[in-house]
Amino acid sequence: MPDADNYGNPDYPAQLAEMARVLQLHRGPIAIASHVDADGDAVGSVLGLQRALRALGKPAQAFLRVPNYLAFLPEAGEVSPPRAQLEPGTLLVVLDVDSSDPLRVEGVAIPSGAELVLNLDHHGTNSRRADLSIVEPGKAATCQLVKELVDSLGVPWTADIATPVLLGLVTDTGSFRFMNTNGAVLRCAAELVEWGASLSWINNHLSQQPKSHYALLVSVLSSMEFHFSDLVVSAQINQAMLDSAGAGWEEAEAFVNTIRSAQGTELAVLFKDYGDNVKISLRSRGRVSAQAIAVACGGGGHHAAAGATLNLPYLEARATVLGKIEEQLQIDGLR
Hints:
This protein has 335 residues and is an alpha/beta fold. It is 38% helix and 17% strand. The strands form 2 sheets. The protein has a 6-stranded parallel beta sheet. Strands 7-8-9-10-12-11 form a 6-stranded mixed beta sheet, with helices on both faces. A hairpin with a 4-residue loop joins β7 and β8. α1 (12-25) packs across α3 (142-153). The protein starts with 11 loop residues before the first helix and ends with a helix.
C-alpha cells in the first residue's frame, strides 16, 4: 500500500485504486504513450505497465520512440512507432508527461480519438488536463507510481515486469545518487530486485557508450563555460558538433550530467542548439531551483532537474537563460 503521508496527498491511495479499477474494467484496446525524447523513466514506465496489463490479458500497446541507448530493454516488436489516431474505444494512458499539451506527448496526438485519457506523472508543473490524473511530485520517478499501480492491479510480479520499472528508478535518480533518492525509493528498488530485476544487468547496459560518444565528449568539454563566480557551468551542443562526432541528438542529453560534476557549481545547463530553437536541460545540486528557471523560460520539470525550449537563435536564447539564472540565484540567496 502506498504511503500517502510521505507525499502530502491523502487521496493518493484512493486515486490509485480508481485508476486500477478503470484499467481492469476497460474491455477495449489500451494505448500507452509518454513524452518527446523519451528517457529511462518514460521507457521504463511504458514497458512496465504494458507488460503488467498484458499479464492481465489486456490488449495494451506502447507507442514510443526508444532511444538507441535503451534499445536493449524492449523485446522485438514490443513497442510500436507513434501514430496520429487511435482506434475507437481505446483507453489512452499517458505516463511521465508534465502537461497534457499535445506537443509533449509523442506516442499519439491528443485529441486522438481515445475514449478516456489517464495521466500518471511526477512533475509538479503538470497541468492535469486528463480525464483522470494522478500527479505525485514527491515521487522520484514515474516508475515509482507505476510500481504502486501494478500493485493495485493485483498483477503478480515477474522479472520481465520489474526490470523496466527498476531501470526508470535508476535513471531518474542518477543511479541513486541524486537528491531525490530517499528511503521509499530504495525500498521500492529492493522489492523490484527481489522480484527478479537485475541491477547489475541494467547498469552494465547503461554504462556502455558508442565510439561517437567520446568524440562528442571532446567537443562538449571544449564548449564548457563557468558563470556567476563559478556557481553555474554550461556547455553547448549543435548540429556541427554532432556531425563531426558522427553522433545523433539522442546522445546529447547525457552530457548535462557530465558537466554537473564540476566541483563547486550549484547548477549545470546544457544548451542544445537546433538552429531555429534551443532546448535547455538544467540540473541543480539543490540550492537553486532548476524548475523555477525552466518555468521562467516556458518549460517545466522538478526542483533539481528541468528543461525548456526557447524559439530563439542560440545567442539570444543563451542570454535569456543566463539572465533568468541570475535572477533565480538572487531569489535563492546565492548572489
